[in-house]
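Listing S7. Sequence submitted for prediction.
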Amino acid sequence: MSTNNVHPFPALKPGHRLVPALIGNRQASQVAYIECPNWCNDDHTAGPTALEDITHTSASEDVAIASFLKRGADLLMFATVEQDPSARNPLLRAAHVAVDNGDMPNYFTPEMAEAFADDLIGFASQVRHLARTARLHNASQGDSDPDMDEALRRVREGGVA
């Protein structure tokens, strides 16, 4: 028996796994196995797609903002790792960070994302400074207003002021 016709299975790139993907369209599709980054959270079998349209997206990291004047929190922004292996732009073909605030996402190289994170850390520090300033001002005003105490109690219990 000749082994000349036996081809070894290709090795996966480090940090990847084989996952099923539904390739085709609504009329005709089939399952094929594709290389998928370990961080990808997409279900590539959720609907048929062309092979060149497959992208990879991680789970999102979310930031929400709440106010004592309204119930619940609004999603301020979220960030994911993304990759579009068939993109013309080499920066989109590489893994990158997407930050979405409700409009079109902002795309960052890893270095740009780190600089953005540094800016957010600086912003958070300034918000802490503003909170400290407000707290010190309120403390300097003497006993707080009983209505404000009641509003604060309701907010802490998950209600609306």
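Caption to Listing S7: primary sequence and predicted structure tokens for the chain studied. The mean pLDDT is 90. The longest strand covers residues 73-83.
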